[in-house]
Amino acid sequence: RPPLILLSRRLYPSAARRLPQAIIMGVRKCGTRALLEMLYLHPMVQKAAGEVHFFDRDDNYNRGLEWYRMQMPHSYPGQITIEKSPSYFVTPEVPERIRAMNASVKLLLIVREPVTRAISDYTQLRANAATASPVVPPVISKSFEQLVLLPNGSINEAYRPLAISAYHHFLHRWLEVFPRDQILVVNGDLLIEDPVSQIQKIENFLGLEPRIGTHNFYFNETKGFYCLRNETSDRCLRETKGRKHPRVNPKVLSKLRKYFGDHNQKFYELIGEDLGWPE
Ligand code: A3P
């Protein structure tokens, strides 16, 4: 669709770059890319390419809103522009900066069961470290278990993949700036299993006509995930989305689930909903 818009700008001068009316604010590894690509199946949605990182990086923020607007795709009046930068969620300055741009912006927060998210985060960090230095002999990387537990057996709360999964620590700042009903909490585990039902809720939240349905998805057995379908093509997300996770010692898993019990309760209180994550 973007090239078509560019071609037709002379015919439709109203096509313009607009600031986003909705932002996927995080959380990393919870399905932020899948969510954006699925919403883009809607004819009234335009998406920014890549992650813009305007509100969380001072060098970008200092370039001003006009720079930010120029990072956005062309859209027609009535279309919604969406961008996603998952690190917005964990960066303290971001809520206030977004409010200063547009106090009525709609925010999408996608979350997953926190231990699964932490393992996904670990898996990505390990994969990135391996590709960053392909010529250097591979460093024997530490296992997930070694990283999440301290030598005395207690939880290494400072380990970033665990810290990010304590969602309430970050969400409370957003709720000091935005009313609760301006943030839609999307269940990322359900988005994997049943994308249609989740996307329909989001269409409603964004005030979009219901257009996305079962005809937009097919299950790809090889990938093990739903892939996306529109009038012209079928496509799955890249292989970096839907990685195989390492097997984690069940004792460590249950220790972590227990540890997140309190954090999850605090998060449920903040959002006013129990997501039923295992303890
Ligand atoms: P894993 O790769 O650990 O399975 P993000 O885009 O925020 O980095 O999130 C990546 C996660 O999106 C993946 O984590 C995967 O589980 C999830 N996901 C949700 N729906 C997906 C889909 N249809 N295809 C691939 N990955 C999907």
Short overview:
This protein has 279 residues and is α/β, with parallel strands linked by helices. It is built from 12 helices and 10 strands.
What is the name of the CATH superfamily of one domain? Answer: P-loop containing nucleotide triphosphate hydrolases
End-to-end Cα distance: 44 Å
Strand count, sense and closure of the main sheet?
5 strands, parallel
Number of strands: 10
Low-confidence stretches: none
Q: Write the element-wise H/E pattern from the N-terminal end onward.
A: HEEHEHHEEHEHHHHEHHEEEH
Q: Tell the overall outline.
A: globular
Strands of the widest sheet, in order across it, are: 3-5-2-6-7
SSE-based structural type: alpha/beta
What gyration radius follows from the Cα positions, in whole Å? 20 Å
CATH topology of one domain: Rossmann fold
- Write out the distinct hetero groups bound to the structure: adenosine-3'-5'-diphosphate
β-strand percent reads 5-15%
- CATH class call of one domain: Alpha Beta
